[in-house]
């Protein structure tokens, strides 16, 4: 009877390198597919990144995320790798200081104005047409009837009941809408 003896042949290192490279490529592909199917939500806004960048003196785009560990340490993770620890209380104090002095971007300003207008419209039972975001102006309607124009600039809110006429000025959207003669909706 004859026996066949099998011996294990060594895999050349170049084949192992190719296999490791192929495996890494597969993992990368799976990760990108998972991101395409269920993208992760970025917890930081561009304003958050600007604040953090101002505090630690880096470009805002270089900040990936932050987290608090043990209720004591704030960690800042960077896009290119690496992270820095900060005392939570010190970091919170600096965030408050920077927030108070950091100017808002036009988009942030428009979002704030839009929220204020929506709340005021709800109080008076109004709705508005399409907003001109450049001048932040729109038309107001109640039950399909034109009520007036409203707009806002850096100083105040303005309203006018018709195309031509006197502008009414107030510090808030709710107050300027009231100057148009619209009554607040009373809950039944």
Describe this entry's structure for a reader.
Helix 2 crosses helix 3. The chain is built from five helices and eight strands; from the N terminus they run H-H-E-E-E-H-H-E-E-E-E-E-H. The relative contact order is 0.07. The chain is an alpha+beta fold. The protein is elongated.
Write the layout of secondary structure elements.
Layout: H1 13-37, H2 46-56, E1 63-69, E2 73-78, E3 83-87, H3 88-101, H4 106-124, E4 127-128, E5 137-142, E6 145-152, E7 157-160, E8 168-170, H5 173-178
Antiparallel strand pairs: 1-2, 2-3, 4-5, 5-6, 6-7, 7-8
> What does the largest sheet look like?
5 strands, antiparallel
Tell me how many strands there are: 8
Distance between the first and last residues' Cα:
101 Å
* Number of separate helices: 5
Q: What is the mean pLDDT?
A: 84
Cα-atom Rg, whole angstroms?
29 Å
Strand content: 15-25%
Q: How would the global form be characterised?
A: elongated
The helical percent reads 25-40%
